[in-house]
Amino acid sequence: MRTVGVEEELLLVDPDSGDPKALAAAVLARAEQDDPGQDVFEKELFGQMLEFATHPQADMAALADEIVRCRKEAARHAGQIGCAVAALATSPLPVSPSLTMNERYQWLADRYGIGTRDQLACGCHVHVSVESEEEGVAVLDRLRPWLPVLNAISANSPFWQGRDTGYDSYRTRVWGRWPSAGPTELFGSAERYHRRVADMVATGAILDEAMVYFDARLSARYPTVEIRVSDVCLCAETAALIATLTRALVDTAARDWRADRPAPDHSVSVLRLAAWQAARSGLDGDLLDPATMRPRPAPAVLRSLLDHTGDALTESGDARNVEEAVTGLLRRGNGAHEQRRMLERTGSFRDVVTECVRRTQG
């Protein structure tokens, strides 16, 4: 059974006003004081962000429990210094991001200017174990058309600087400003993958290999593929669903590779359009069907995803839970849909943040 790990970035906010607060250093100090040597929580690009990483898990129920536990621990540490955590991919309220000061982040700020300062956006990265780099690259080639569907499920960033953007996942539009971000062409082999990465670094436009911000990539630290398209999800249950579907997609892709079934040869231009469509309308409109790259209603595309990964989900014992989770998701909507419903009900971005803090803590 492949193991899965999840990294989530959370927004630190004032519990009364809802305004983002640059208190990550203080929260991390409190976490270290409570648990010396802890390796769960880390700093991020901005002081208003806190990241945690789960341990690798083969059992998806155990992974879901750990996501909930990490969120609660983050909330506890934050509460001890007078702030709160919210699983929001962008801040509904206006914010002036505070850069975390270290040599790497300062280089990014100097190199990319306002493009760096506009990157206060929280994502969810999923790591799935692979047996080799060759298998990993074969998986990356076959995952490409399905990644926008994962983004539509996770979409949780409709607001930016106190305004409705018209997007379900505005975070992905912000993230796409990095020069190395986005979908990739087919690699075909690990050797060609590494050659392309080396060519990108050699241009000098990016700092190093860690700045290759593909939608999905080989991890430089772990024997995993790292899928990076998802917003941080409002509900922990949705994060667990994303992780479970991602493992099933990896299993299915690896099986297709071993059976010599070719990877879909969609162009990067079309994949970018699929990503834009998913970010724009999430689950409320059409998505581009991963097989045909033509519009289909989002529920039908989600059904195609379940059909595509059905064998893998059955073998892992996750099929029933995923079916129920997808049914619930379509009924209530993704995080962006829920945030808009909160705003319609309360008329206040502050109240949206307050409610999202409560949801984050379960």
Task: List its traits.
11 strands; single chain; 49% helix; 7-stranded antiparallel sheet; Creatine Kinase, Chain A, domain 2; two-stranded antiparallel ribbon
Question: What's the layout of helices and strands?
Answer:
Elements: E1 4-13, H1 24-34, E2 41-43, E3 49-53, H2 60-80, E4 84-86, H3 103-112, H4 114-117, E5 123-129, H5 133-143, H6 147-154, E6 159-160, E7 163-164, H7 170-175, H8 190-202, E8 216-218, E9 224-231, H9 236-258, H10 268-281, E10 286-288, E11 295-297, H11 298-308, H12 310-316, H13 319-332, H14 335-346, H15 349-360
Antiparallel strand pairs: 1-3, 1-4, 1-5, 2-3, 5-9, 6-7, 8-9, 10-11
Helix pairs in contact: 1-2, 2-9, 5-9, 6-10, 9-12, 9-13, 14-15
Question: TL;DR?
Answer:
With 362 residues, the chain is of the alpha+beta class.
Give an overview of the whole structure:
This is Putative glutamate--cysteine ligase 2. It catalyses: L-cysteine + L-glutamate + ATP = gamma-L-glutamyl-L-cysteine + ADP + phosphate + H(+). Belongs to the glutamate--cysteine ligase type 2 family. YbdK subfamily. Its EC number is 6.3.2.2. It comes from Streptomyces bungoensis. The chain has 362 residues and is of the alpha+beta class. The chain has a single domain, classed as Creatine Kinase, Chain A, domain 2 (2-Layer Sandwich). The protein has 15 helices and eleven strands. Strands 1, 2, 3, 4, 5, 8 and 9 form a seven-stranded antiparallel sheet that branches. Helix 14 (335-346) crosses helix 15 (349-360). The longest helix is centred in the last third of the chain and has 23 residues, at 236-258. The radius of gyration is 19 Å and the shape is globular. The model has no long low-confidence stretch (mean pLDDT 96).
